[in-house]
Write a structure and sequence with these properties.
GO terms for molecular function: odorant binding; olfactory receptor activity. It is found in: Cell membrane. Belongs to the insect chemoreceptor superfamily. Heteromeric odorant receptor channel (TC 1.A.69) family. InterPro entries: 7tm6_olfct_rcpt. The protein is mostly helical and about 450 residues long. It has one domain. About 80% of the residues lie in helices and about 0% in strands. It is built from 14 helices and no strands. Helix 5 crosses helix 7 and helix 7 runs parallel beside helix 9. The longest helix is centred in the middle third of the chain and has 53 residues. The N and C termini lie far apart (about 55 Å).
């Protein structure tokens, strides 16, 4: 009904289609029905888990070679993030179902004159989601195409066949023949397809929800402008009744923001912690510029995709923060306060005072905004600059042994470990400050 009324054929298309491919109905009315095809979802998840386990074995076997670790860790860490998103999504499926229904209900309740606001923001969101879908699809396509190109070139130059898996791992069957390699390739296809589809679904769901929360802010401003124009024509009682409706709308938007934050907190926390190491690893391999051109191109696309993931969350958090904080200035600029009664002014002050506390998108212990993304990019830049300086020094490093790295002066790994630890400290710093503040309050109460 809403899609037909808005005449927006691709409303929520990218997110909805991505979830449907893996058996999830994100628009279900009951949270028990959100997993529409349980067997399909289970099989995809199982293939992704097996793939993650095989890559983990490979990383452990080559723990003394950080270059090999960096080559394998990209898809491994993305698979771990996708599996974590799956667990959180299934565990909180009731919360996301309620949030989706509340957002849809808010959009349905808008007046026909306000449809253009929904059209504007959802069209922008579709462009961002489609671009992200193209980046993820390109990364997945490259992960399967690169080994095939390498095998073809090796056969053309040496006249020998090699069987290179899409992702290196410790597999429990022989894939040095056509049948075994075909089975391995299909397993990778199903596992990585799930990782890509679920990542697109969850990562585009957050900006879509934020966009529709922003829609409700602008709908409220639109209604307040109408009220301001009518303030000279209607009685004070009718004016106050309309203002109360807008204040209730503001309260409803705040509840949506809290629901959004509660659902994505754990997902964002793990995503940013793991993505810190992932970006450092990809930047490490890319700056060293080892390998053929198509391999470097794939690594560049992969790095761009991961950076876009973080940017989407950071931009959404910044957007939510800005919209929630400018309510007071918008209300103040809309009304002619000298013509309002004292009761009307007091009603508007409720929303203005509440807007002094900004809404945030958090990762359990830290706020997600553009400053966090800038900090991550600065750490990536530090890695690139340091690797360029030490590019001529080729040393083997032990990924699990810090003292070995210090003893052998493995500068690359020491730098990456330092960056990752700094990343964790920044993530947990807000949590530590909060705990200290709570302890101080408890001592004062005693």
């Amino acid at each position: 009904m809403l899609l037909h009324t808005l005449q927006l054929k691709r409303y929520f298309w990218v997110t909805r289609r991505s979830f449907n491919l893996i058996g999830i109905d994100i628009t279900a009315l009951d949270y028990h029905d959100i997993v529409k095809y349980p067997m399909r979802c289970f099989l995809f998840t199982a293939f992704a888990a097996v793939l993650a386990w095989a890559m983990t074995i490979h990383v452990y076997e080559y723990r003394d070679d950080f270059g090999e670790f960096a080559d394998t860790s990209g898809m491994l860490l993305q698979t771990i993030i996708a599996l974590w998103k799956t667990l959180v999504f299934l565990f909180k499926r009731k919360e996301i179902c309620d949030l989706m229904q509340n957002v849809w209900q808010c959009n349905i309740n808008v007046n026909p004159q306000e449809f253009h606001i929904i059209l504007k923001f959802n069209s922008q969101n579709f462009t961002i989601s489609a671009l992200y879908m193209v980046l993820v699809s390109s990364t997945v396509f490259g992960s399967f195409l690169v080994p095939l190109i390498y095998m073809f070139e090796f056969y053309r130059k040496n006249g020998e066949k090699i069987w290179l898996p899409p992702q290196k791992g410790g597999y429990f069957w022989d894939y040095s023949n056509a049948i075994g390699y075909s089975v391995l390739y299909i397993c990778h296809l199903l596992g990585i397809f799930f990782v890509a589809a679920f990542s697109i679904g969850v990562d585009t769901l957050c900006p879509w929800l934020v966009s529709n929360i922003v829609v409700q802010y602008h709908v409220m401003y639109y209604r307040l402008r109408d009220i301001a124009e009518l303030s000279y024509e209607i009685s004070t009682e009718k004016l106050n009744a309309k203002i109360i409706e807008c204040v209730k709308c503001h309260r409803q938007v705040l509840n949506l923001s809290n629901q959004l934050e509660n659902f994505f907190a754990e997902i964002i926390f793990i995503k940013f912690v793991i993505s810190g190491l992932l970006i450092c690893s990809l930047a490490f391999r890319l700056v060293r510029a080892e390998g053929q051109f198509y391999i470097l191109l794939y690594q560049l696309v992969f790095l761009t995709t991961v950076s876009t993931q973080l940017l989407m969350y950071c931009y959404s958090g910044q957007r939510l923060k800005n919209e929630s904080s400018q309510v007071a200035s918008e209300i103040y600029s809309i009304f002619e306060w000298s013509h309002l009664s004292r009761n009307s002014q007091k009603l508007l002050l409720f929303a203005m005072m509440r807007s002094q506390r900004e809404c945030h998108l958090t990762g359990a212990f830290f706020m997600v905004d553009l400053s966090l993304f800038v900090w991550v990019r600065e750490r990536e830049r530090d890695v690139c600059m340091y690797v360029k300086q030490k590019k001529k020094k080729k040393k083997r490093t032990n990924i699990f042994n810090f003292w070995f790295c210090l003893k052998k002066k493995s500068y690359h790994f020491v730098l990456l470990l330092h960056v990752f630890l700094c990343y964790l400290l920044k993530v947990l710093r807000t949590g530590g400050s909060l705990i200290a503040m709570l302890k101080t309050l408890d001592e004062k109460q005693v």
